[in-house]
Every structure is written in C-alpha cells, then in structure tokens.
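Solute-binding protein family 3/N-terminal domain-containing protein: structure, please.
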Amino acid sequence: MAKHLTWIKRFAFALLYIGIWATVSPAQGFCPQRIAYIEENALSKLTLPTMRQIYQDLGCSSKFIALPGRRALSSFNQGQIDAEAFRLTLVEEKYQRPFLRSHHPVLQLYSYLWVAPDYKETDQRPFGYVKGILWQEGYAKGKRFSAFHNTTNLLKAYNSGKIAGFLASGTAIRLKTEKNVLSPPPIAFQQVHSAPLYHYTQEGYRKFIMLFDQHIEKHKPFAEISEKMQVPAEKSRLITN
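Here you go.
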C-alpha cells in the first residue's frame, strides 16, 4: 500500500511538472527570441528603441542582434535568427524558409541619391552604396557605383571626397546632417525608391505577428519617424551610368 501511495505521489508530481512546462512553453514559443537588424544603419538605430518597446509591450524579452544585411539574410535562412526588424518585400525572393510578414508596414521608406553640393554631371567619381541593402544593390547594378560594407565606411568615403554621392534614406541623412557628421551636407539629387518596410518572422510566430499588427494599427508607434522620412529632391532624372 505504501509503495502504491509513493507511486501515486510520483505520478502526481510528474503531472504537476508537465503542467508547469505546458503553461510556460506556449509563452516562450509565442515570442521570436532573436531579432536581427542591419548594423551601422541609421534607420535601424532610429527605430530600434521603438521596436524593442513593442516587443516588451507584447510580453517579449527578446534579443536584438546587429548584423550586416547579407549576414542577417543568411542567418534567417539557416534558422539562426527568428525575425528581422524590417525589410522590403524584395527580401521575400531571397528567403529559403517559410516566413511571415506583418500585415501593416512598419515604415514607408523614401530613399534618394545624395550628391555633394558641387556635383557636376562631368564628375568622374563613383557613387556609393551599402552591400546587403537590396534596393541599393538593385539600383546600383550596372551604374557607376562602388560598394561599401556599411554606412559608416560609405560616409567616410563621402567626407574624404572619394565618392561624388551615395544612396541612403531621407531619415538617415537628415539625422547625420543634424549631427554635423557629413561635410559638406549633401543634396537630395533624386528620389530613387519608395516602398513599405515590413517586420518578418519565421513561420512559427503567427500569433505574435497578429498581435504585432494589432499593436501597430492601434498605437502607430512609428508615426513620428515616418513624418520625417521624405525630403524634397533637387532633380527628377535618373543617373544611368
């Protein structure tokens, strides 16, 4: 009888243990744990505090990891990260795993070709772009552009006069100009790209994406940033060579 009671106690303890973990596991599975964002990127730095706050509001204590654009993509494809803070829909043809995209865009990206104030069409210097930023790679292909590993190196090349201009979002350059990082301050020569940026996760986070969308729709946390995204451009012609 004593042995029988001992067995019952052990069985009850096992059920309690399973019950505890049954309540914990769904909560853990709800949250993407590792979220990538593009390193040395002004827009990432600007939006990251807001993205962190959204995750906290949804009950997630996730880790945000800075990676180069291409590394973030390969890490997503290898299952090493669970989400990307924001990407253009261009990324979808690069994903090799099932994914989920937020229904509502995080931001509307307005991007420009920026040039030095003394730029002339006879200028033989190349323009610059950052590897791994898909819209920049697409625009620069076949044109007189040099590739850089990150925005920091790109802007150093501009400041030293090695490039005549570069591709970047309006918000990024507005922030750099306000901080006197760029000398001389560049001119928005032409708007070359406009598209929504979405939050992406691996396939298993459908409930999270649903609540993420509800939060975005209700609180509009990126509204103030979005208002600063667009700037007037000087020209309307394409740079074709």
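Notes: The two ends are 90 Å apart (CA to CA).
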